[in-house]
Amino acid sequence: MNRITIPDTELSLCPIGMGAIGAGLKWDGKEADTMFATYLELGGNLVDTARIYQDWVPGEIGRSERAVGDWIKRSGKRNEIILMTKGGHPKFTGPQDDLHLSRMSDADMRYDLELSLRALQTDVIDIYFYHRDNERQSIEEEIETMENFVREGKIRYYACSNWSADRMRQADAYCREKGYRGFVADQTLLNVGMVHMKPMSDDTLTSLKDDILAYHKEQSHNLAMAYSSTAGGFFQRLIEKGEVPESNYATPGNLAVAEKIKALAAQYETGVTQIVLAYVLNREFPCVALIGPGKPERITESMKTLEIAWKREDFQNLTTIEDA
Q: What is the pLDDT of residue 323?
């Protein structure tokens, strides 16, 4: 469980990726040094950010990438990580922004990529993601944009986030026809609370269920990467602190799931975080769990998940609740 190799690439990833959505806001400077040092010392090598992260907080655009880039420059650790970022997200500086207004043209993606390279203080992105899709654009246009970035040496591989299974299949077919490697990863929502959660307010997000689940069972070449893998800490607060936080996860079904999580934690003599992450890592197909820690202790806690010999069958029915 210590590494996942993506077929037909040179990429060997830690199954738990360090999400930097809090970089530049929750932690920066010396705190960022501590966060990344902790993750790397525990065997991590996958760092995930996005051009849009924290733009909804006034004062700075590209805050997360800037903080990650500052750490890369200070630490000299660029060659020790697989660096991922995402472009093409709709403008997101506040609640007035319409997330359905696409920014995924070739010019939009090039604009975002150039800003990302400068902010991250690197010559090349290891995995570059379409943060959203625009189904009004042709698959050919979107793939050729990424292929041009590869030819120019600005990205090594490309991927998608929040794409439908149908569009990913179309992309796969086009890449086979052209002899391209194609998407190496897909970032989508997956966590133990997802089955019973209330609907998300942002309908541009996707979840690893139904057709997308079927797709990943079939297509091992496109590695599933789970964002919100810890359900926003809902189960930790519920079980460890006795709180029922206001959340899309606060449903009768997830209160029942929490009881099953507690039982598994007792069985394995471990904590809630390890059970929640083990649920993601024990799918029928390889899957990376992306975490967004706010402090070093959360990283240490999360990485302990990789030290435990899990039985996959213990997680198969974790979200199945009768009369939920």
A: 56
What gap in Å lies between CA 75 and CA 33, rounded to an integer? 8
Residue 1: the pLDDT is 56
Sign of CA dihedral 145, 52, 49, 162: negative
Domain of residue 287: give its range.
Answer: 4-232+272-311
Count: domains in the chain: 1
Is residue 170 in a domain?
Answer: yes
Per-residue pLDDT at 96: 82
Please, are residues 212 and 165 in contact by the beta-carbon 8 Å criterion?
A: yes
What are the residue ranges in the chain where pLDDT is below 70?
1, 323-324
Token pair of 321 as six digits: 């609740």
Q: Name which of 116, 178, 100 is nearest 142 in CA terms.
A: 178
How far apart (Å, rounded) are the C-alpha atoms in residues 158 and 184? 6
Report the alpha-carbon distance of residue 63 to residue 50 in Å, rounded.
Answer: 10
Q: How many residues does the chain have?
A: 324
Q: Are 126 and 156 in contact (CB under 8 A)?
A: yes
> CATH number, domain at 174?
3.20.20.100
- Yes or no: say if 242 and 293 are a contact pair by the CB < 8 Å rule: no
The predicted-structure confidence for 155-211, as pLDDT tens digits, reads as follows: 999 999 999 999 999 999 999 999 999 999 999 999 999 999 999 989 999 999 999
